Amino acid sequence: MVNLGDIAKATGYSKATVSRVLSGDPSFTAKESTRHRVIQVANELGYALRSSRSGIPQMMAVLENFDATHGPQDTYFADVRDALRERAVENMMSLSFFSDVDSLVEAGDDFAGFVSLGPAPIAREDLQRLHEALAHGVFIDINPAPTLFHSVRPDLQQTVIEAIYALREQGRERIAFIGGEGHMMGSHVFARDPRTFAFDEWARLLGMPTDGHVYASGPFTVDNGRDQAEALLDAHAEAMPDAILVAADPLAVGVIQALVARGVRIPDEVAVLSIDNLEVCQYTAPTLSSYAIERSELAETALMLLSDAIVGRFRHKHHVLLSTHLVPRQSFIPLEDTPRY
Fold it and tell me: Where are any strands of DSSP class E within the chain?
């Protein structure tokens, strides 16, 4: 059976140091490289870690890859950042925040790994520099380098499928879609967002009308949501859709504004269903039904995935998708207790 002495001998550290690292002693300050080495060797030798916290690095970097001053469209990322802070406190971790790749790379020796939060594209050469400086990283919400880093994302495509079924269960067959453009996967930025792709594919499979029912260009902003909704209503003045599925709440706020301005009754004439469940959903008129992305679970999953990667528990990169759940409000009230499939 492996004991503390075996690990001390293999690492070159004292038995006392090994003991305090593996017990997760919060009063013990050690270099991250020391903790990493002790935990890695303990895992390699088959030592059973007794503390759920012992494998969690104390110092972690966070790359803020978004601009919180942009308004509602970036409130989501600010919420996830707050959740990261909360989860770090619970796990006795300290987070250091960086606003750009250059500053994070420069400070790379101070950290065992990093979490990147936000949707902004990162150049391939910058991703490579990040990997050279910090081999372990988890991206939240995008998956820019699947072979270099791990990722945690909400399952937006499955959410769209759930939303389509929920709307159709009410007998709503003329479902329109309003979204935005731009999504990063690997080293590519795609014009078609995965929510748009999922809607197109499932509308086709279910025989739903798509010609002139999909508006998905421009940014994820209130103004763009309103403009695209007005274009949709102009194109279907004689036969409006009976539901509009919207890719994100900021867009949906604009959609509701356009419908109300035209005197359209929500949800009687047109139901509106969105994704994100931002705080603003409670203050629209009518209030907005939206699929919630649990920020706390995104944060917790990212931190635990990174911790496991740092201590050597994975041989391959992991890409985790988290499900969402509907928070019904006035703009769409689903049928209850009806099986989806």
Answer: 59-64, 94-98, 114-117, 137-140, 150-154, 175-179, 181-185, 188-192, 214-216, 243-246, 271-276, 289-292, 319-322, 325-327
Q: Indicate whether 145 and 173 sit together in one domain.
A: no
> Is the same domain home to 183 and 289?
yes
Say how many C-beta atoms besides its own lie within 10 A of residue 321's C-beta: 12
Q: Are 37 and 10 contained in the same domain? A: yes
Are residues 207 and 96 both part of a single domain? no
Predicted TM-score of the model (pTM): 0.79
Strands (E), 59-159: 59-64, 94-98, 114-117, 137-140, 150-154
Q: Give the mean pLDDT of the chain.
A: 86
Alpha-carbon Rg for the chain in angstroms: 23
Q: Where residue 32 falls among pLDDT bands split at 50, 70, 90?
A: low
Residue ending a domain, among 278, 293, 308, is: 293
How many structural domains does the chain have? Answer: 3
Range of the domain at 219: 156-293
| CA nearest neighbour of 170 among 233, 230, 256, 245 | 245
Question: Minimum mean pLDDT among 14-18, 68-72, 131-135, 312-316: which range?
Answer: 68-72
User: Are residues 255 and 190 part of one domain?
Assistant: yes
Least confident of 68-72, 122-126, 219-223, 233-237: 68-72
Q: 80 and 117 in contact (C-beta within 8 Å)?
A: yes
Distance of CA 28 to the CA centre of its chain: 33
Judged by DSSP in three states, 246 sits in strand
Based on the fold, state whether residues 90 and 170 are members of the same structural domain: no
